């Protein structure tokens, strides 16, 4: 900034603010009610809330990151162990939901790339297209043709049949 300032254009505020003089000896009712409200309502509520926050800070609970322990696969369950069957089924359902979300996220990324790139989407979004193809193929290999009522047992049988077909194809190719 230049050194030659125009002091009339930018006036400096007064150094001391004047003190208002009271004309009556009666206290202001607004300050009285504010003080009463502060001590009767606000202070106890603030104390209770801070106490609750201190208690919650001691044991943090992140409800949105629930981690389940991995349970044995259905193929590892013993015969007649129905609790193991139930846990394996629940684990399979969680895995299926995670895989569905992975496919959905990759699909959304591809859609965002296509939206962003416009006419150049075919060359600039090739990586996302390839990734979506891989993810959907893996999902289809594992969960395809199971239908709405698919479960861990039918998925395991599908995997077994696919492995048997791959072995037959390898045996026929080597002959």
Automatic annotation (TrEMBL):
Entry's localization field: Mitochondrion inner membrane
Primary localization: mitochondrion
Keywords, comma-separated and alphabetical: Electron transport, Membrane, Mitochondrion, Mitochondrion inner membrane, Respiratory chain, Transport
Any Gene Ontology CC annotation: mitochondrial inner membrane
Membrane topology recorded in Swiss-Prot or TrEMBL: Peripheral membrane protein
Organism domain of life: Eukaryota
Known role: Accessory subunit that is involved in the functional assembly of the mitochondrial respiratory chain complex I. Complex I has an NADH dehydrogenase activity with ubiquinone as an immediate electron acceptor and mediates the transfer of electrons from NADH to the respiratory chain.
UniProt record similarity statement: Belongs to the complex I NDUFB10 subunit family.
Protein name according to UniProt: NADH dehydrogenase [ubiquinone] 1 beta subcomplex subunit 10
